[in-house]
Amino acid sequence: MFGRFIPPRLVLFGVVGGLGLLVQMIVLAIGLDAGLAFTASQTIAVISAMTSNFALNNVITYRDQRLRGWDLVRGLLTFYVICSAGAVANVGLAAFVYRGEHVWWLAGLAGAIVGSVWNYAVSAVFTWKRQ
Question: C or N terminus of the chain, fewer CB within 10 Å?
């Protein structure tokens, strides 16, 4: 259904990203409830979301190119490196929004949106490239 207009991998990446957003928001809320500063909570939440996104994308989105063994470790490290630009933008924008609005969920959502397109495009090329 999507293949003619939207690449199926993009749809799957978006679904996984939505789950990652859920992970990010839950971890952010837990961090704030535990008394951590917003920026520290957001940073931990972003790393948690990146890790869950990598694992789910490896099993679902890129199942035909699934990474195993040392390739899995290399892939995770590559994913962290290439998504770090999106993560820095995520945390930076979220901190900016939080300072202005003091609405943690709005700031977390704004940050997550910033890195999503970058993460899809770059991870498709570098993390799950065909060998």
Answer: C
DSSP 3: T
What predicted TM-score, i.e. pTM, was given to this entire model?
Answer: 0.79
Return the axis-axis angle of helices 8-33 and 104-126, rounded to nearest 10°.
Answer: 140
H/E stretch holding 2:
none
Report which DSSP code applies to 72. H
Quick one: tokens of 51?
């890790």
Contacts of 105 (CB under 8 A, 6+ apart): 25, 28, 29
Burial of 83 from C-beta contacts in 10 A (0-12 / 13-18 / 19+): buried
Q: What is the pLDDT of residues 40-95, one digit of tens each?
A: 999 999 999 999 999 999 999 888 989 999 999 999 998 898 888 888 888 998 99
The H or E element spanning position 68 is: none
Question: Angle of helix 69-101 relative to helix 104-126, nearest 10 degrees?
Answer: 150
